[in-house]
Amino acid sequence: xxxxxxxxxxxxxxxxxxxxxxxxxxxxxxxxxxxxxxxxxxxxxxxxxxxxxxxxxxxxxxxxxxxxxxxxxxxxxxxxxxxxxxxxxxxxxxxxxxxxxxxxxxxxxxxxxxxxxxxxxxxxxxxxxxxxxxxxxxxxxxxxxxxxxxxxxxxxxxxxxxxxxxxxxxxxxxxxxxxxxxxxxxxxxxxxxxxxxxxxxxxxxxxxxxxxxxxxxxxxxxxxxxxxxxxxxxxxxxxxxxxxxxxxxxxxxxxxxxxxxxxxxxxxxxxxxxxxxxxxxxxxxxxxxxxxxxxxxxxxxxxxxxxxxxxxxxxxxxxxxxxxxxx
Length: 327
Known about the structure:
Helix content: 40-55%
Oligomer: single chain
C-alpha cells in the first residue's frame, strides 16, 4: 500500500511545526490582553486601598496592562468579595483580602453569601502590627495603667472599632479578654471616623493598624501604648509589645492578600502568584511598605492558604469566647 503523502514530507512538516509546539508549551499560562482589576473592600485611603494601589502598579509593570483599583466598601468586606465572585473566574478580577472577610466573617456571621471554599488564595502580600493607641489626655501609658483606669470608671471605657471583624477589632477583643479591661465597643464605618473621634476624645482607646495610626502618633495626636506583634516595630522602637507587658503568646498581625474565585484555572493562579512575588521582591516596594510599618510577604498559594486556614480557626475561638457579634 502506498502512502498518499511521502514520509519525507510528513517528517519535514513535523520539523516545521515542532518549534511552534515547543513555544506554546513554554508560553506563560496567563498573558492578559485587557486591564485587570483589584477590588479593595474599603473606602479610599485605608490600608486595603493603599496596598492595592501599590501592588497594582507592580502588576501593571509585569503584565504590561493597566490594573484598575475599585473601592467597594461595606458589610465588613462582604460586598467586595461578592463583586469578585460575580466576575468571570479568569484571573482578571482579584480581591484584596484581609482577616475580616476572609477568616473572621465565617464565625462572626450566621449566614454569608459566600463560602470559604468559594475563594482561592493567590498570595499573601503584607504583614504589619496593630497598635494600641489612646487619646493623649487619658492618664494611661501602659496596659496596666489602662486596665486600672478602666476599673476606676463607672461603666468602664470605650474602644473604637474601625470595622466589625477587622484585625484591630479582634486584637482589641483578645486584649480585653486577656487583660481584663472593662470597655464597650463603639463600631464605626472605617478607620478615619474612628480615629477622628479618638483624637477628639469621644472614645478612649483603639487598636488599629500601624499604617493609619502612625501619622497621628508621630504628630502627637495619639499615644502608642503597645504593638500587637511578638517583636517591636522598627517604626515605633520605643513602644513595647503586648507580650512584653506580660501577656504570653499574644501575637496578632494585620495581613492582606489576594484572592480569586476557586473556579479560576490553577495555572492562572500560579501565574498571578509569580507576578505578585516579583512585585513584592522589588526593593522600592519593600522600602515603601517598611516606611508604612509593613513587611512584604513572599510565598506560594499553598503557603497563604495554610495561613488563612489557621487564622480562621484561631479567631473563631476568640469570637466564640468573647461572644462577639457582627454590627
